Amino acid sequence: MRIFFTSIVLVLLLSLNVSAQNLKYCGSTEKEAAARAQDPSILIQQTMLQNFVRNWIQNHQADVRDNTLYVIPIVFHIIHDYGYEDITDDQVRNAVQILNQDYQELNADTSAVVSSFKNIIGDAKIEFRLANKTPDGSCTSGIEHIHSLRTYAGDDDSKLDDWPRADYLNVWTVRTIGDDIAGYAYLPATANSGSFAGVDGVLILSSYVGSIGTGSALTSRALTHEIGHVLGLLHPWGNTNSPGVECGDDGIDDTPVTEGWTSCNLNGSICTPGVIENVQNYMEYSYCAKMFTVDQALAMQATLNTSTAQRNNLWSSSNLVATATDDTTQSPCAPIADFYSSLKMTCTGSAVPFHDVSYNGIATNRTWSFQDGTPSVSSDVNPSVTFSSPGWKTVSLSVSNSEGSNSLSRTSYIYVSDASVAQYTENFFENFEDPNSFSNDWIVFNPEGNTSTFTRVTNAGYNSSSSVKLNNYGGMNGDIDDLISPSFDLSAGGPLYLNFRYTCATNANSPSDENDDLYVASSTNCGQTWFQRLIIHSAALANAGYLSGAYTPNVSSPWVGKSILLSSSLYEPNVRFRFEYKTNGLGNNFYIDDVNVSSYPVGIQDPDAASFSMNVFPNPVTDNSVAIVNQQLAGNVQVKIVDLQGRIVSVLYSGWLSEGQHKFELSSLHLASQQMYLLVADDGLTIQREKFVVQ
Question: Which domains, ranges and CATH numbers included, belong to the chain?
Fold first, then answer.
């Protein structure tokens, strides 16, 4: 068979649903075409590499099992938001152990390889060692933990703090990857392009790393698969990235032609009658992988002996010395301080848990410092702290061991409210004309610390000159920003509404790409927990439409008024509201104005302002049909039936309705068959109509 290498493979493994019957993956055809269009020299690099690999395999068949050991320094960048995706160093070390077993034919499960392939199990003689030196020469464990919301995006922009690919194999782990992908990597010919140098390596789901912690034995070979692509291997069915479509060839002589497998059929033979296909190959999708072939091992060694994407420098003696991986000793390092709390807001007197997640070296000593906290100082790993005064609080952590020390201090890390004193009552109105009210009353959370944040502006507003703007033009995919209201004492009762106006554009020129969201939530415990009240999604959010440049509203720009009827659960002495904006990176600027809490909605045309919902069931009407009114807030309501000419047929109810569900029978009304009617409900503020048909 001929050697054939494509220029790029986005390795599309399996979704987090690890059921062997529901594996998901997708192709890289569009990515491959885009890469070649961006840099036509990729085709030249492909041809050069393909010729070199062909000759290498032919010339090294006899010495495939010599004692040459290819040691590769490897570094893991754990991209996380302090959730389960912040995997432990032990889980990473377990993953490296599995890699070294797989790439040196030391894995015990080779005993289960089918007889057709037992004699051609390949030993690539490749060993991966966690780096002991950073690019600047500092001590490292080869594992760094990076807090970033990019963990949710799972794309090339999530590949933060890449170390020089000539010196290290970079692996980035994230929480999610789009389209249910488990991981991907670029082939050397594509990675050789200068524009891809900073993203060369593996991006993979954290739960597909290792077999312990959040990993599993089933998914633990995903990283073996991905690194196979980094070292030049294709899927056994070729370059389509779509198993089961048609018979294909990866250009490796001892891997039979195959369609590709997403199940573990050890007797599978589809493409060549009588020839068993290599279902147990690490480059398959079968998830019962146990082997490389001899020629695959040679192909990876060949790649490591070329300058393509600087692969030949990885295992050079000078690089092993520079990265301190020239022996197997893992030197101890000073710790790097890091911490988190699951709470970013709290009440005075409420306990807040903090967690030491320092890395790089084991801390033998630690000192916490909490502004206005009780305790104010702690040496516990995970202390619990209360705060006695309201406002932003600074939290610091210092850690050390015999190798050194490190400190981290975060100002404005947690916001504390006085639960006994609210700033406002109902009949509150904020048009952001007063700069002091915004700076004194409103809380802004910008987790990424970037320019995409809520700020008061004086060049745009609804019937005014001021509003609050989220600078979301050119924002980062996965970025989340919060605007949190002052506290309200609503214990006097209602009905009450949260009202606001907004205007927003999009930078996505296709409706299918519009994917920004605004979440409106409420809290009655100083922001410790939030309950969602409203979601405005994509096109409904981008009411100003597509704009290629940064959006600034003018006098003719559309503003949407929204009203949210507040449930009785919010008639409490300390209530806050949160406006949380999430972007996919294709959004545009968002503006909010005229936020108020009052007895009146923005407008009776807003369905969110209704105090009730209703329907007729079943519809078309039978003898058992009823009109159902779900009263969200107790009040006076008239419920009636009218015909299509607007004439009242019957008044079902008029008067006070308590909260809850109310049913009104329709069987006694003697409505004309084969006719359409309207169920109408009116609470004095909102009129709703529901059509129904009589059988």
Answer: 29-241+293-322 (3.40.390.10), 339-417 (2.60.40.10), 428-598 (2.60.120.200), 610-693 (2.60.40.3080)
